[in-house]
Amino acid sequence: METQYYTLIEKQDFYEIIENKYGELAIFIDARKGNPENPVLQFDGKKTALLKRDAHLAVKLDDIDEDTRAPLAEAEFLLIVELQGKMVERTYAVPVENVEEIVVEGRQTRADEYVKAKTKDELLAQFGAVKCWASSSHK
């Protein structure tokens, strides 16, 4: 069973991808609330990447520059730098996964956000239910 990493996707309109003299990459994005948990960056080899930041939030990076695509596809890890204005809020390393295509699940709630729909069973599993009682009229 595949782990679903997110329930919300935010589109990052402005980001920077930086390469240092050692060929290491860093992506500068806006800071998000909370610390990331098991983050991973998926890249489709074309022009879209998806930072799965934690179990609830993914950040979509569109229109990746053509010159950046090869170094990004070859990277095993890169550094994410989250900025609050010009101040660094946090930095963390993420593995890079090359995928055929970026699949966005859920429904769009506004231009840059998607909410992944949950089933009753998924919610009960997330809640950690061990028992479930229905009303006496529901048999």
Q: Which features would summarize this protein structure in a list?
A:
10 strands; mainly beta; 10-stranded mixed β-sheet; 139 residues
Describe this structure in words.
With 139 residues, this protein is mostly beta strands. It has 2 helices and 10 strands. It is 12% helix and 40% strand. It has a 10-stranded mixed β-sheet with strand order 2-3-7-8-4-5-6-1-10-9, with helices on one face. A hairpin with a 4-residue loop joins strand 5 and strand 6. The longest helix has 9 residues. The protein is elongated and about 65 Å long.
The ordered H/E elements are EEEEEEHEEEEH
Low-confidence stretches: 108-115
Question: What class do helices, strands and sheet pairing give?
Answer: mainly beta
Distance between the termini: 30 Å
Assembly context of the chains: single chain
Portion of residues in beta strands equals 35-45%
Biggest sheet overview? 10 strands, mixed
Per DSSP, the total helix count is 2
Average pLDDT: 79
How much is the radius of gyration in Å? 18 Å
Q: What strand line-up does the widest sheet have?
A: 2-3-7-8-4-5-6-1-10-9
- 3D shape: elongated
Instruction: Let me know the number of strands.
Output: 10
Helix content: 10-25%
Quick overview of this protein structure:
With 139 residues, this protein is mainly β. The chain has two helices and ten strands.
Would you spell out the secondary-structure blueprint of this structure?
Blueprint: E1 8-12, E2 16-19, E3 25-30, E4 40-43, E5 49-52, E6 57-61, H1 66-74, E7 77-84, E8 87-98, E9 107-110, E10 113-115, H2 120-127
Parallel strand pairs: 1-6, 3-7, 4-8
Antiparallel strand pairs: 1-10, 2-3, 4-5, 5-6, 7-8, 9-10
